[in-house]
Write a structure and sequence with these properties.
single chain, seven-stranded mixed beta sheet, binds S-adenosylmethionine
Amino acid sequence: MERVPEPELMDAGHQAAAYAAADFSLSDQAVIERLAQLFPAGLGARVVDLGCGPGNISFRLAAWDPAAQVLGIDGAGAMLELAEQELQRRRRLSPDLPGRLRFQRCRLPDPQLAGGFSAVVSNSLLHHLHEPAVLWSTVRQLGGAGACVYIKDLRRPASPEAAEDLRRLYMAGAPAVLQHDYVASLRAAFTPEEVRGQLRAAGLAGSLQVAPEGNRYLEVWGRLD
Ligand SMILES: C[S@@+](CC[C@H](N)C(=O)[O-])C[C@H]1O[C@@H](n2cnc3c(N)ncnc32)[C@H](O)[C@@H]1O
């Protein structure tokens, strides 16, 4: 099926709240476990989480390596408000957390962002971007030499019927706004072949590889030169 882009930012209050309230713990934890498998020596001292939303992955990254500084970046104020609230809630148990986990509002691309990160991670951002090259140029801009890169996203199913099947399988019972967003996200997602072309165009095909994962995701990983 043809790609149908969806709005980039998730900055409607009700949309951000429904997303933050949903339980993505299994798929979020799967990201951390995969990172541990791909990069057993860890992600290094400075980790950036692109399109962090309410911080689901950023909080897990900060918990995974208490020595790392983690920066979550998102363009949606509604999402970052929820991330900041969660950070304040968690600081009661982990007073050091705000010193090593920060959130920054920024709509990508942003040439002002400083690089030198030891790892660039992103979960479920790519399919939001109207111009996917934005992600790959940001990876190059922010990742230092040898930086670990891990990007996970939905992959576009072959047909609208296949997208409906996935909605029924994984989102039945979720709030209507999430079910709607899920199908829109599947239709906006890329195929592994398209991502391979994006990496070639960005000059990243030699350092990053892409592969399908399970029945609905794709992954991109590697180290920058
Ligand atoms: C589906 S959410 C994923 C949130 C989080 N990474 C997670 O795994 O739960 C996608 C996020 O990307 C953000 N986003 C989309 N386009 C963006 C852009 N151009 N710059 C910054 N953030 C963007 C949206 O606002 C939204 O919060």
